[in-house]
Amino acid sequence: MKYKWITILFVFSMSIFLGGCWSSRELSDLAITTALGIDKHEEGFRVTAQVMNPGEIAGDQLSSRVPVSTYSENGKTIFEALRRLTQSTPRKLYLSHIRMVVFGQELAEAGLAPALDFISRDHEMRTDFSISVAKDMRAEDLLNVLTPLEKSPANKIVSSLRTSQNNWAPTKVVTLDELIATLSSKSKEPVLTGLYITGDPDTGSSLENVETIHPPTQLHVDNIGVFHNDQLVGWLNESESKGFNYITDNITNTVGWVECDKEGTVSLEITKTNTELSGYQEDKKPKIVIDVKSEANIAEISCTIDINDEKTIQDIEKKIEKKLVDIVNGSIEKAQELNSDIFGFGEVLGRFEPKRWQTWGKNWQEEFINLEIVVNTDMKIIRTGTTTDSFVNDIKKNKNEDE
Questions:
Q1: What is the structure's pLDDT at 286?
Q2: Which residues form the Spore germination protein N-terminal domain (predicted)?
């Protein structure tokens, strides 16, 4: 009997520490938000929430209802705008499943800090979502576009960002933690990838946009936006964006090409890249050395060359090395023009020359503009494809014989 009461007392005491579902909320009471758009407004902010329609997202059958809905509201603060949305949304917004936060360009140019404070402080929001800028447009217009393949436009944007970064390389996926860490750094400036739409925004917000083979309005992932502190100051073009990813060792896979000696081109798939940065003092001035080592496969040949000849392979390697130097230098020149150390050269010098960095860091903007940078590249072609000769050569030979 004694042990029975001890067991009962133990079970009862343990139940005190088991909270159960005291803070649970019914799914039917929540509006699951997949994306937030934040724009500058005369009142302060205009916030757009992209909310899932669960029945349409999960359903396999075509329907006359859209898979997501968007709601927009203004407020002096972002928090106020979100709470004002309860006047138009049937349920309270649930922010824990956000995949994407998009800032309008006007807001990005004015400064992201006020908006980021709420995003980083709110307990519901996780930090693994991607952040981008709506290029030359409002975030609200961008989030209103329906997309094919992916029922959720937010998922489409995130997938496009990652696919482009991993297979083409002029874009970069940036999460909240990374953005805040870079903004807090004294020697590195942040970047965000741009997004834009082509076509009529009104058509993009209707089911008509996903009912044709070629959607009249489409969402596109653009190139990299450059920031100084928390303000957008300019954009890199496609080549300069690739150069940024080469310098920051963010290349997983991409494509390049070089011209043949006579006519045509050779395309290469860059399959592996490793970049090392080092910093020194030379003539009492800071100096950065960039060493880029890459491996590539020949993917396409549209000229008459003998790829069995080692000299031919070496010639292609030298050409792509030179082109890579130009790409990297182009990105550096643009960043120096915008006066924004997006590569973290200041951090490199702080590691290699910590004592001298104390002096250079006091006036790093001026030092960065005049910084001497040396770029070294080493490209090795590993594979030449499944054929040793292109049938293009046979076509050209036959054509010459006929003539």
A1: 97
A2: 24-193
Residues near 363 by beta carbon (within 8 Å), at least 6 away in sequence: none
pTM score: 0.90
State the Cα–Cα distance between residues 84 and 34, nearest whole angstrom.
18
Residue that wins the pLDDT comparison between 303 and 109:
109
Residue-wise pLDDT tens digits, 152-172? 899 999 999 999 999 999 999
179 exposed, middle or buried (CB, 10 Å; 0-12, 13-18, 19+)?
buried
Shared domain check, 242 and 172: no
Q: Residue 10 pLDDT more than 70?
A: no
DSSP 8-state class, residue 241 = H
Between CA 349 and CA 365 the distance in angstroms is 14
End-to-end CA distance of the chain: 110
Tokens coding 80? 């106020």
- Does residue 189 sit in the same domain as residue 333? no
User: Last residue of some domain: 235, 270, 287?
Assistant: 235
**HSE value, Cβ hemisphere, 13 Å, CA-based, for 8:** 5
Q: Which pair of tokens denotes residue 168? A: 């083409």
Distance CA 124, CA 187 (A): 31
Ranked by mean pLDDT, the top range of 57-71, 188-202, 383-397 is 188-202
Give the pLDDT score at 401.
58
Same domain, 200 and 328: no
* Residue in the block written with tokens 């973290």: 344
The structure tokens listed for 323 are 């082109």
- For the chain, the domain total comes to 2
Question: Is the C-alpha dihedral spanning 226, 228, 229, 231 positive or negative?
Answer: negative
pLDDT surpassing 70 at residue 60:
no
pLDDT above 70: percentage of residues in the chain: 86
Burial of 72 (0-12, 13-18, 19+ CB in 10 A): buried
Closest residue by Cα to residue 236 from 222, 250, 252: 222
Determine the structural domain holding residue 272 and report its residue range.
238-403
In this structure, is residue 87 part of a structural domain?
Answer: yes
Q: Is 147 exposed, middle or buried (0-12, 13-18, 19+ CB in 10 A)?
A: buried
